[in-house]
Design goal:
Low-confidence stretches: none
Radius of gyration: 23 Å
Largest sheet: 7 strands, mixed
Strand order of the largest sheet: 8-7-18-19-20-17-21
Number of strands: 22
Strand content: 15-25%
Mean pLDDT: 95
Distance between the termini: 18 Å
């Protein structure tokens, strides 16, 4: 009788745990799944903590409810699979603001990550170069072409639209700059229509029409009790053996699968498995690929990352505007790049005592030296800058927390999607029982990472001989 397959999932973030759940659901009965997490905590960039006596997110805050095609997102599907659908809550305040010339202005609606299809909609925050977006008789992008978001939008709409709108919106998600980030990877819907449309306004409108948003349908959701409940449920429902503080130091192919070297160099443990899902960031993945596939390791290891710090303050009865938060363009010269008013944005977090939880994001790509400040300095700077932006002194915080995420946010240069596709094609040909998953390859956001993990699990199941369920 053939023994059950053994699958190692390296990385206990949401991509790795999603892969483990998918393996449990679809792999042959009896498949042995082990999740190896280098740290002592599962969840990766999903981390629910506590501040002033209530749960608060120290990492990712929410997930998209719909996928690009208009169906429910992979995150929502996973939440349902785990029996947590009754915990989904939505923002009670959706309007955010931009800081422009030191003043708060509403974020214009109807844009695609800040790129407008109607230039008249953004004149309150930027002066578009409308005459530049003319029909030149050919599509904006050629077949297979990729450019930075900034290069395309500057050429068509001018600098102000990029600097005051697109850059802060992308910066809020990626901590990167529009002039560095790949259009194909960060805005795939716009990249697709740009291969057909002759103007940027036309491409934006076509992308929006391809994924219409139903009126009144929430865009974002989170879980009452915190996203940590998603991590706990995924780990439990996967039925996997969870090994925390378990560093994988080496990955070697064998005649039947893979050999993992686990633990400290002085006392290593060797584990034999049939297949591996590598759900870790690009640099540790590259180190593990260096033995079995050095040429692929070199490609994977080129991906750069930005570091950020999230500063959360508990403020007694502050005077906050009725906004979900604000975005800060880099041209404003402030340390903060975004802020979320948790207890305003999320109605389920509001407190009868008026205590407000406010979080600010600090750190842009290329400005890592700013994060060398102490926690106390970061918190004081955030307090001071928010007071200035809001035009009123904020009360002294009664509690606070600084969460540092070193090398947390991938920076996708043009051509990223093609490079990752080529790596995966080579892995399928040479090492079909090894699959990559995670934000470093497929994009940021909980739904993307869930789908990435599930897809990697499906590839492993296929390589091991199919489902059997």
């Amino acid at each position: 009788m053939r023994r059950p397959a053994r699958v190692a999932v390296v990385g206990g973030g949401i991509a790795g745990l999603s892969a483990a759940v998918r393996l449990r659901d679809r792999a042959p009965e009896g498949t042995e799944i082990t999740v190896y997490e280098q740290s002592g905590t599962l969840g990766g960039k999903l981390r629910t903590g506590e501040l002033a006596g209530q749960p608060v997110e120290f990492g990712a805050e929410s997930f998209l409810m719909r996928d690009p095609a208009g169906g429910e997102s992979a995150a929502v599907a996973l939440v349902r699979r785990l029996g947590l659908a009754d915990r989904i809550v939505h923002p009670s305040v959706g309007q955010a603001a931009l800081v422009v010339d030191g003043r708060l202005r509403p974020v214009p609606g109807g844009t695609l990550v800040g790129v407008p299809g109607d230039l008249g909609a953004v004149t309150t925050v930027a002066r578009p170069a409308a005459a530049a977006d003319r029909d030149e008789g050919r599509p904006l992008l050629g077949p297979g072409e990729d450019v930075t978001v900034g290069a395309l939008v500057r050429r068509r709409y001018g600098d102000e639209v990029v600097d005051r709108l697109v850059d802060p919106m992308l910066g809020g998600v990626y901590a990167g700059r529009a002039d560095d980030l790949s259009l194909v990877t960060t805005m795939p819907a716009l990249a697709r229509t740009a291969r057909v449309e002759h103007t940027l306004a036309g491409a934006v409108r076509a992308a929006q029409a391809a994924a219409p948003r139903a009126p009144g349908v929430p865009v974002f959701g989170t879980l009452a009790g915190g996203l940590g409940t998603l991590i706990e449920a995924a780990a439990r429902e996967s039925g996997a053996t969870i090994r925390r503080d378990a560093t994988i130091r080496e990955l070697s192919p064998t005649s039947t699968g893979w050999r993992l070297t686990v633990g400290p160099t002085r006392d290593p443990e060797h584990v034999e498995v049939d297949a591996v899902v590598l759900a870790v960031p690009a640099r540790p993945a590259a180190r593990l690929l260096a033995g079995p596939a050095p040429e692929l390791a070199d490609v994977v290891g080129r991906l750069d990352y930005a570091s950020v710090a999230l500063v959360t303050l508990a403020l007694p009865r502050p005077q906050l505007p009725e906004l979900s938060g604000l975005l800060v363009p880099g041209t404003e010269g402030l340390l903060i790049k975004a802020s979320t008013f948790f207890t305003t944005k999320w109605g389920h977090l509001r407190r009868p005592d008026g205590l407000a939880l406010v979080r600010a994001s600090v750190g842009r790509y290329g400005e890592e030296t700013q994060l060398q400040r102490s926690d106390e300095d970061l918190a004081a700077t955030v307090h001071r800058e928010l007071s200035a932006v809001l035009g009123t002194p904020l009360p002294a915080a009664i509690d606070g927390h600084v969460q540092r995420w070193g090398g947390a946010l991938p920076q996708y240069a043009p051509g990223h999607t093609d490079r990752v596709g080529a790596v995966r094609t080579a892995l399928r040909a040479g090492h079909p029982t090894l699959a990559l998953a995670g934000a470093g390859y497929d994009g940021v956001g909980i739904p993307v990472c869930v789908r990435s993990g599930e897809t990697a699990a499906d590839e492993i199941i296929s390589a091991l001989g199919g489902s059997g369920r």
